[in-house]
Design brief:
By secondary structure, the protein is of the alpha/beta class. It contains ten helices and five strands; from the N terminus they run βββαααβααβααααα. It has two domains: 166 residues, 2-Layer Sandwich (Nucleotidyltransferase, domain 5); 64 residues, no CATH class. It has a five-stranded mixed β-sheet, with helices on both faces. A hairpin with a 2-residue loop joins strand 2 and strand 3. It is elongated. 25% of the residues are buried.
Amino acid sequence: MDLIVLDTETTGLDAKAGHRIIELGCVRLRNRRHTNENFHSYLNPEREIDAGAQEVHGISSEFLEDKPLFKDIVEPFIAFISGHELVIHNAAFDVEFLNQELDRLGDSRRIEDFCRVTDSLALAREMHPGQRNSLDALCRRYGVDNSGRQLHGALLDAEILADVYLSMTGGQTSLGLESQSRSPGPTSVASSESGGAAGDFPVIFASASETEEHKKWLTLLGERHLWDRGDILDADLSAITED
């Protein structure tokens, strides 16, 4: 199951008042790594955009005049997300707008019918109670670069949220580490939390200088330390491979 990180921009804040989606952006994570597979579209909402909303995302009605309608992109969008886990910050907001768009088409299907929905805002509030948990606040907390986010944008915010979510859940974004040379030996440990298989995560081995510093520290510890005990190390590795 892939992770699909989703965000929308809308004409206003209230779906029940007839506001609509004007931008839809999704990024796909596979084995907790970024892929080049995105889904992105601007949409003609067939209505005006609230001034307050336009100040947030900077998208004008004039820009959207020649953009597709939701009905034009609904099937490829559903195909992109179906069978996967959908990660959304403040999921109730986006899901309500998406389901409203389906209602407008006379479509009784719900977003929840196609995929499991995870609310990263609810998760952040559980992890950091009493703190600010906006996307910008989480970027600061986890050291995620959001310097390009002068205005909100669905695809940009989905990309940022993907990095935040991986950091929040203990994962690693793809940094090209697979191409680094590694010493022979075990290359990964399977993650039961993410459902990954063995080989999903790279192991980064210590450099020669780091190894030398470690040996100096062991010398200071004397004979009471356990790190050089080959019998213990072999037993630990055996336990890992048998689990």
